[in-house]
Fold:
Amino acid sequence: MDRIRFSAVIPTYNRRNMIGHAIDSVLRQSYPAHEIIVVDDGSTDGTIEYLKELYSNFPNISLIRQENLERGAARNRGLNDASGDYVVFLDSDDKMLSQHLEILSRKILELNGPDFIATKYRFESDAGLSNADIMEIPEGFHDYHLFLQGNPLACNICVKKSNPNLALFEEDRKYAIKEDWMFLLQNTRYSKVYIIDAVSLVMHDHPERSMRSGNTLIINKTKLAREWIRERIPLSRPDLKKLDSHISYFCAIHSYIDGKRVQALRYVINAIKSGGFRLKYFVLASKITLGKKLVDKLKGVRP
Structure:
């Protein structure tokens, strides 16, 4: 393999006002994409008609419309239809920096075709750019242990299409917003993802982003994902403790944000029981005890 053909798969739902930026970022790559596949998941805001008007003269852009089946199904549809060597997933409210595919191509050839590969990203909001947790992860191969502590990649992953052991995204909509974490944890149980120490993506942090769907909903989805993981992915007892400590800590954070201090403290206690004492648990417990309003006031955050 001397030249990598990339299929960029962009699932979308009611992102008419954002998706053009995502598509244009792929079109501006220094290393051209083989194809761009947009899967419209039953949008009701005229997304598909808008895209047909804008990109009808681009033969390498495929527009697929399906009934609303959620993102797992949309990603699987794009993956199934892709004809490239590697499939690069991009959410419709995010964008690639101009050298994203070039960086991936060089490293794929250097590593002789890894099953999974990714770069790093920053968040963009009205306040400007900010670093994501992935910035602290060293370059190299990582297995499922990384994802027992959450999903630092989101769905910014590049997948080898010919991988015979590739597990698809969960399509049951009750797991929506967690399907990317489940996909990565399941696939890295017996394989590894190579993370490149280069920032080549920008995630748009905005009020309509799925991880701002409401803290109670996020907590419930996370608990459902835990049961799915326990049922489908063989994990050792220490692995399960790491998973449970992360989930309890994650739920504590979202309970704290909602002002549910008693519930948040219970989650912190569960995190300590599963994962032992860690500084971040103590810091969160202190914030919960003070209350979010007081903490924000001390930090100078306006309500």
